[in-house]
């Protein structure tokens, strides 16, 4: 039985360690909980731990990846954005909690934080709060979803899920292609597509 919970941890980790918008970790947690009839609270605790471990690793390797694929100007810009986020204090934390509660990929938060060289602990506590609440809701709704599998499949292909994926991609594009120095210092929106080495 322990290996089933290990699958939950590994699945959540793998879903949240990738540097591009991927379905939320609860999309692996819920089916495994239903399939094996696992205790929902253990699924939530272990799944959230896997998600946090995945996001932690993501935030550690993103700076190295960013140095290899983005121009130095883009990396400095992201570090500037991180400095601004750090100065906002509790407002930034509240924004992370609120964003983590939404059915949107949280990858952009960790890409921005990693590229900005923020310490993972500046993001993870707020992410934990939002993630725990949203995953608890998702896992507890798992029984309802299992009884309505046809509706669940059509929802996965619905305009809402597709819009969520598109919005996640747009947020990453905004993160990468907006000139954040100009936007934050001069309040002027400029796009820069020449960010790759």
Description:
The protein is mainly alpha-helical. 77% of the residues lie in helices and 0% in strands. It contains eleven helices and no strands. Helix 2 crosses helix 7 and helix 3 crosses helix 6. The longest helix is centred in the N-terminal third of the chain and has 30 residues, at 40-69. The termini are far apart. The model has no long low-confidence stretch (mean pLDDT 82).
| Radius of gyration (Å) | 18 Å
Helix content, binned percent: over 70%
Mean pLDDT: 82
Strand content: under 5%
Strand and helix map with partners:
Blueprint: H1 2-17, H2 26-36, H3 40-69, H4 72-87, H5 90-101, H6 107-115, H7 124-140, H8 142-147, H9 149-156, H10 159-177, H11 180-186
Helix pairs in contact: 1-2, 1-3, 2-3, 2-7, 3-6, 3-7, 5-7, 6-10
Short description:
This protein is mainly α and 197 residues long.
List keywords for this structure.
197 residues; elongated; mainly alpha; single chain
């Amino acid at each position: 039985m322990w290996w089933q919970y290990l699958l939950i941890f590994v699945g959540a980790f793998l879903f949240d360690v990738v540097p591009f918008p991927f379905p939320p970790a609860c999309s692996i947690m819920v089916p495994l909980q239903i399939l094996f009839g696992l205790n929902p609270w253990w699924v939530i605790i272990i799944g959230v731990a896997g998600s946090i471990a995945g996001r932690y690793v993501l935030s550690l390797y993103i700076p190295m990846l960013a140095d290899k694929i983005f121009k130095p100007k883009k990396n400095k810009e992201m570090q500037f954005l991180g400095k601004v986020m750090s100065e906002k204090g509790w407002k930034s934390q509240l924004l992370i909690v609120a964003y983590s509660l939404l059915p949107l990929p949280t990858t952009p938060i960790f890409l921005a934080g990693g590229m900005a060289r923020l310490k993972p602990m500046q993001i993870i506590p707020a992410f934990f709060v939002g993630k725990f609440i949203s995953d608890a809701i998702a896992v507890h709704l798992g029984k309802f979803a299992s009884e309505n599998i046809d509706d669940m499949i059509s929802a996965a292909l619905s305009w809402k899920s597709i819009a969520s994926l598109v919005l996640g991609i747009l947020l990453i594009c905004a993160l990468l292609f907006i000139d954040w120095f100009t936007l934050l210092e001069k309040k002027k929106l400029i796009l820069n597509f020449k960010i790759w080495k």
